[in-house]
Amino acid sequence: MSRMSVSVLLMAIIAIASVAQAKLLYPARPVPHGWTEVAPHSGKGKKPSSAAAVLHAPLTHVVTQQELSHTAIPILVGLHRNNVKLMDDAFWAVSDPSKADTYGHHVTSHDEMRTLVGANKKDIKDVKHWLATVVAPERMSSLVLSTHHDYISIDMSLAEVETLLSIKFRRYVETASGRHILRAVNSVHIPDHLAAIVQTISGYGGFPMATFKPRQQQRPIAGAVTVGSPQTNVTPALLYQVYNQSWFPTLPAGKRNIQSFFQAQGQNVNYTDLTVFCETLLGVKNCSITRNIGGNNSQNAGLESSLDSEYIMSTGHLSETWIWTFNNFDFCGDLMRFAMDVFQSTDGVHPHVISMSYGSQQLPNYCLGPDVHRLSEDTQKMGLMGVTVVIASGDDGSGETNRQSGFNFGYLSPSMPASMPFVTAVGSTTFVAGNNGQQMATTEFGSGGGFSTDYAQPVYQQSSVAHYFKTQTQLPPWITYNSSGRGTPDVSGLGEGYNVLSGGSWQSVGGTSCSTPMFAGMVTMLNNIRLKKNRHMGFINPFLYNVAAPVGGLTDIVAGNNDANGDGYGWYAAAGWDPATGLGTPNWGILAEQVAMLNSRDHGGDESVLKMKAFASRLATKKH
Fold it and tell me: Where are the beta strands (DSSP E) in 423-543?
């Protein structure tokens, strides 16, 4: 055997041994519909300085060494959390209204949460050492350990990421828009000794959601706002009337009540639009965004962000409002980055209501492998900290088809991330006739709903879902859905004909993106009531299903469907919960009464659930 043959053989043996000592973290990712790899050939391009710059730089067909060395991207490592079972038990103890002694006793201390779930010092040191083997010393200074010691963020060059994860960046182009991006979709292995420490890694392989046109009609600004059709012309005043929001509870002295919303995909709030909206439709001049995390280009108004800011302000009655901005164009990665950033404020303060009007009903969804479980765990942790997460249920009806990729292989798919079990999914309705009165499932588009294949059906909705299947005869073919999965939406609200000011123009907007910030703002007002007892609503679904709905806090919707294609592959509204309109639309007055009743029975102190005897003793026995 020649010397060269021996050398090749030794290299092969080393490679095999290396793989044997590595743990598969992610299989190869599918490239989303609408994106294709650019065929390589020679070419030169402008040197980009960030992932966003790569997205819009002049198209080159080769990933150059210059790009690999000089393009820095934020990588996020999710560390396995400790005491997940104890976190789950504590979460249900504070979220279930039937548990009078512990309901509402959320964890309010970051130190307590860190003690509960944070990775131990040795594990953190091992991950840092692994990163330092490839990351340049000047970039190691960008490393950030999350407040709760469950995430590590670091800026890395593409070349460093390739070396660390044994992957290869390639250039992909979106057919519809022509925009291009560098992504690595290979399988990812991590060293075997880190398998029990590292749960997720994001920032290198996720894609933007595909480009699509929002539902809008652009009109010039007029003296009187009459943008919508006679069928639906939604203003804040109409929402107050229809949903019985006849008063706004004041914020107790010395308290802060912060609401927020997530913006991504290049969306921004135009502050002038927000001011004019508030002056015109709310009669006030003090609408403002208190804190913007991640940057906001106020000169580049986005219709989605205009809608979110204007209507969470309306029903949230000008409460303190924050924005989180994510322009990495990596949808799933942005969601996990957001889960870290919610608790990263240097002053230790965080919002207690989050509105998110983003998602996809595409199969397979944008989040794969361990990311699916991690995101659900992230929102459960938020709930334990007293945060209510409200997410739009999607605009593709039952999900037989979707706007991103078209056909869903014969299956019905609800929207991700609204299908996570620890968030409140909001669907949409419209009026049966005129601009008031009885409502039905929206007709302008299919309000998203159905049953998840990623998440099991949570206990708080099992009896409601069972009743639906027991009484409903008009169902899609059984093979197209998972009847034991998490059902969405949870609630609904008007979702057509919203008057929105964006880019200086009044526009009529429809979608579950409308009903979501509207409902989120109402939850903020419920928090003003709970704060009289130094409490927050937190994860609100058990309250909605088991307390509010039975006494009329939600108005049942029994007309309409989300069979967007009209072929029988959809869900029909029915008495009780259904996968088109959920439990129904809010009656804010009754919701407020029920929250006041919760306050009247609450005679406990301010201690968190983790300090209560049963949980404190269990936590004390855990090793970190």
Answer: 424-431, 439-441, 450-456, 485-488, 491-494, 498-502, 505-509
- What's the predicted TM-score (pTM) here? 0.92
Sequence-separated contacts (24+) of 270-274 with Cβ below 8 Å: 270/298, 270/299, 270/300, 270/301, 270/306, 270/502, 270/503, 271/298, 272/298, 272/504, 273/301, 273/306, 273/310, 273/501, 273/502, 273/503, 273/504, 274/306, 274/309, 274/310, 274/313, 274/501
Report the chain's terminal Cα–Cα distance, integer Å. 53
Range picked from 225-239, 307-321, 356-370, 604-618 for highest mean pLDDT? 307-321
- Tokens encoding 251: 């914020």
Burial-class residue 617 by CB neighbours within 10 Å (0-12, 13-18, 19+): exposed
Amino acid at 235: T
> Is the pLDDT at 385 greater than 50, yes or no?
yes
The b/e string for 136-145 (b: 16+ C-beta within 10 A; e otherwise) is eeebeeebeb
The model's pLDDT over 332-345, given as tens digits with 9 standing for 90+, comes to 999 999 999 999 99
Predicted confidence (pLDDT) per residue in 449-458, tens digit: 999 999 999 9
